[in-house]
Amino acid sequence: DQPVATTVLAIIGKFTATASFSTSYVYSAELFPTVVRQTGVGLCSMSARVAGIMAPLIRLLDQYHRAIPMAVFGSAPVVGGLLCVLLPETRGTDLAD
Fold this sequence. Notes:
The termini are far apart. About 0% of the residues are buried. By secondary structure, the chain is mostly helical.
């Protein structure tokens, strides 16, 4: 319906996906201890690439119901954020104001 808004949102989405993909290398290298750093960075890289492969396929699920792709793409970051609460640095501590 609104091609300009769709194009702007698509470009913003591509930019943030690229930024998060490259940020995962930097963050995961700092996250894992030295002993398992290569394995951890490799696992993060592999999961990012698998997600990149699966994203167009998830988009095809809208032929069954329009809300399925939105539910999948919306629930993944929420689940990831909730799992961050279980990290040892944040478990049992109060949130900062």
